[in-house]
Specification:
The protein is mostly beta strands. Helix content is 9%, strand content 43%.
Length: 422
């Protein structure tokens, strides 16, 4: 079973997706991704008569990359679904996909469109409005949920909210028809979900969205020389990050998966390099993949001639909140191009502190073209200017605040503070 799940993860990226999954699962012929997940995954199922009455729900999990960690582990106990958006965890009417035993998953193994199948269950036809992800709680010395910071070999306990007992509520509505199958992916954003707790370790503030299983997106390769430099690739619209990933550490391939059809700005960052932006990348449909580069002609970033700078400070929530945590982002806009987020980070849950390390050199811009390789050019006239960033602080339930021009072209800025109010 585990080898089959890993095969699905490995196959769900790049070209020839159907063929590669079918081969790894030991099947032949053209079949859908949903059917392959059903064949390769565990959980549930009923008799032929039951299948004709019920529909089927299949659930898998994937991840965007985590900032500053070599592992982010969560132990999944079950996925719960209910037709009522207001049902409590003790109400009748829940249908569960239970993992037995509970499964400890390193989310960082699930980037570039890879999936971990959590199982499936028959469902009564109807409209469903509540989905919950239930994690095991840490108990004693056992670390059901944990992190390994980059450069360390020590596994550190990841404190989880009380919601892990009743389940993390996810925003999702979907319909199940008799005899039909619905497949959903829980897209866990580890970078936004793991926050510091001062000197006390780390806490989980889950940021999870529910997306369709269908596979599409944006594919490309990063130059091998950059792969040790903490490369991050994001797909953005209007400066808001829609999807994020890190390239494969061996091949340099990246895949921004499961995107709603439309145009995206792809932003690539790495240590000691200029930011690269590809503007207006089209995703035509829920089954199409747009290619930005090849393994023989990968994307390379311009080396930064000057050292990066740091924007740091603290974010205070007024009134304070025991459930919400703020995040900070640094943005730049092109005079003849998009506005993009270069870096983002959740603040320390105990102190509100943050620190963003950013290029002080001009970013590179390439308009999308189907003709490869793409041609990047330095944009010295970016707004608010080279080495300057618009810094924005936000938290759920609080008004977003921003500073239009924080300058690190000549010196770090360590007192960029915010107080967020409702």
């Amino acid at each position: 079973m585990k080898s089959q799940q890993l095969a699905v993860q490995a196959a769900l990226r790049g070209g020839h997706t159907m063929t590669r999954i079918a081969r790894h699962c030991g099947m032949a012929g053209a079949v859908t991704v949903a059917a392959l997940l059903s064949a390769c995954g565990g959980g549930g199922g009923g008799s032929a008569g039951e299948a004709s009455v019920n529909g089927t729900l299949g659930v898998a999990i994937t991840d965007a990359p985590a900032c500053g960690f070599d592992a982010v582990n969560v132990t999944v106990n079950k996925v719960r679904v209910h037709q009522s958006a207001t049902a409590s965890d003790t109400d009748a009417g829940w249908t569960d996909i239970t993992l037995s035993p509970a499964r400890k998953i390193n989310l960082l193994n699930l980037t570039n469109g890879a999936l971990e199948n959590l199982g499936q269950t028959p469902l009564t036809p109807g409209h469903y409005t509540q989905l919950r992800l239930v994690l095991d709680a840490n108990a004693g010395s056992a670390m059901a949920n944990s992190v390994i910071p980059s450069g360390s070999v020590n596994e550190i306990s990841l404190d989880t909210p009380s919601a892990v007992q009743s389940g993390i509520k996810l925003v999702s509505q979907f319909d199940v028809a008799a005899g039909q199958r619905v497949d959903l992916v829980l897209d866990f954003d580890a970078c936004k979900s793991v926050v510091r707790k001062g000197n006390a370790g780390y806490a989980l503030k889950p940021v999870v969205k529910v997306v369709p299983t269908v596979l599409n997106g944006i594919d490309g390769f990063i130059a091998p020389a950059l792969l040790s430099q903490h490369v991050m690739v994001t797909a953005q619209q209007g400066g808001a990050i829609v999807a994020a990933t890190a390239p494969n550490a061996t091949t340099g391939e990246f895949f921004l998966a499961r995107l709603v059809p439309g145009n995206y700005d792809v932003v690539i960052t790495a240590d000691n390099s200029a930011t690269a932006v590809i503007a207006g990348v089209p995703v035509a449909s829920t089954t199409s993949t747009t290619v930005l580069s090849s393994s023989s002609a990968p994307i390379t970033l311009a080396a930064a001639a000057t050292a990066p700078g740091v924007i740091g400070g603290a974010v205070v929530l007024a009134p304070a909140s025991s459930t919400e945590v703020a995040s900070v982002s640094a943005k730049q806009s092109f005079a003849a191009g998009p506005s993009v987020t270069v870096k983002y980070q959740g603040v320390d849950i105990a102190t509100g502190a943050y620190a963003l390390t950013l290029p002080t050199v001009a970013p590179q811009l390439a308009p999308y073209s189907a003709t490869l390789p793409l041609v990047f050019a330095a944009q010295a006239n970016t707004l608010p200017g080279t080495g300057k960033y618009k810094v924005e602080a936000a938290a759920n339930g609080y008004a977003t605040q921003s500073l239009p021009s924080v300058d690190i072209s000549t010196a770090n800025q360590s007192g960029v503070n915010f107080t967020l109010t409702p």
